[in-house]
């Protein structure tokens, strides 16, 4: 298969680029042929500290090996250790010590697209894993065919269950790890989004619109478009991340 | 729609805590055999409220000034009740509060080790306010002081998320009916809604603790009932978070707590995504 994928990101209005706490992986545009591709987006929680580093660790981990419900428990301790090692915890003020103790929190949405040779021919399959409110949308023939894990705009709130760098906060995590598997066809498109844009997307679908007709623009135009949505009150002011993945079949 | 303004560094909101420091606060808290004074319960409540508010606003680079905060004591005097470097200051940016406690004590706590057990941990416990109990209970004067501070704040921040006043008392005003001054606070507004007044009643009564009730029928005495009536109903967004946090709420639920922990109110504030599994 041939994949054409492009990440887009805009920090919350009023925040600097350094304060952007979403993450995505791979780190740039993908224009490649192969039998398997993985993509991930994550949304570090505002109210925790060091969430940006945690979100980045999670998206990289997803793309560098399986990270679904069954192996999450196994891999989390290593990822949590990596997060702790990334912190400079020397002589922190009292409130920063508390934040380190509480741990960082992030959503995670990962998508893996495979082309598998089988006795029955070529199988085109994909699977995704989600924790929290970052969403995946699959579009075919100008119709939305999969919305995962949330399916309605009213399901978004500011209190999702997220994956934590603090083991004590992940006691019931396995109940919140959702998995899905399905098939893909040439010319399908996938959109991975963090919550603010995903909520806008589902609202637009509910209003009978086709929000996947997001202009295939350069990243700076994406920022202008998001600013306009914010100005018009159509999207909550938050970090915004989109990974658009288009499947083009084989290109000889 | 009211109570939807974004709380940010460019559009901060305001908190005022009113702290009863009257002589009656020397009495035991919660009745029975308790030797703990109400004044100590008040000091714990305000220090924990300030801690939680600072932690809520803290990021890796420091404390973001989402709030400006005043702590007004009322007893022998009515005025700023900060101890240490912040003494006599009225409305203080939350970053200054985070960085300038009067002192930092070491306390022990048990924490979840993530494997079903508990381990001991020593933590830094900042103190801004020490227990005091002296003089009458000039609650009306304290509320009038809060109203004056808020009028000035709102003139400079007309579009802010509405200020919140939290009054911590053992209930009995000695300078008149506080209902009128309470109504005056609640009639102040920004373009996003009216100021909110919540009350924490710390009593010597053994009556059952109550958190965020929607009627006064089960309350211990006339002072609890009066403080309930003086308390604002929780706005929609707070009610929604309170419900997600496991509290039973209705449209009549008020910001009133009797002999219990009011720190949960800090969790009802929305400055961005907060994991539901963060406790």
Task: Record keyword descriptors for this entry.
heterodimer; A: 252 residues; alpha+beta; Phosphatase 2c, domain 1; five-stranded antiparallel sheet; 5 helices; B: 279 residues; alpha/beta; Rossmann fold; eight-stranded mixed sheet; two-stranded antiparallel sheet; 27% helix; globular
**Beta-strand content bin of chain B:** 15-25%
Number of domains of chain A: 1
Number of extended strands of chain B: 14
Briefly note the structural class of the backbone of chain B: alpha/beta
- What CATH architecture of chain A do you see? 4-Layer Sandwich
| CATH topological fold name of chain A | Phosphatase 2c, domain 1
The pLDDT mean of chain A sits at 91
Distance between the termini of chain A: 10 Å
Can you walk through the features of this model?
The complex is a heterodimer of chains A (252) and B (279). Chain A is an alpha+beta fold and 252 residues long. Chain A has a single domain, classed as Phosphatase 2c, domain 1. Helices cover 25% and strands 33% of the residues of chain A. Chain A is built from 5 helices and 13 strands. In chain A, the strands form 3 sheets. In chain A, strands 3-1-13-12-8-9 form a 6-stranded antiparallel beta sheet, with helices on one face. In chain A, strands 2-4-6-7-11 form a 5-stranded antiparallel beta sheet, with helices on one face. Chain A has a two-stranded antiparallel sheet with strand order 5-10. In chain A, a hairpin with a 2-residue loop joins strand 8 and strand 9. In chain A, helix 1 crosses helix 2 (69-85). Chain B is an alpha/beta fold and 279 residues long. Chain B has one domain (13-267): von Willebrand factor, type A domain (Rossmann fold, 3-Layer(aba) Sandwich), CATH 3.40.50.410. Helix content of chain B is 27%, strand content 24%. Chain B has helices at residues 38-57, 94-99, 139-156, 178-186, 222-230, 236-244, 264-267, and strands at 13-20, 58-59, 62-63, 67-74, 78-80, 92-93, 103-112, 118-127, 164-169, 189-190, 193-194, 196-201, 210-211, 256-258. In chain B, the strands form 4 sheets. In chain B, strands 1, 4, 5, 6, 9, 12, 13 and 14 form an 8-stranded mixed beta sheet that branches. Chain B starts with 12 loop residues before the first strand and ends in a 12-residue tail after the last helix. The model of chain B has no long low-confidence stretch (mean pLDDT 90). At the A-B interface, helix 3 of A face helix 1, strand 2, strand 3, strand 7 and strand 8 of B.
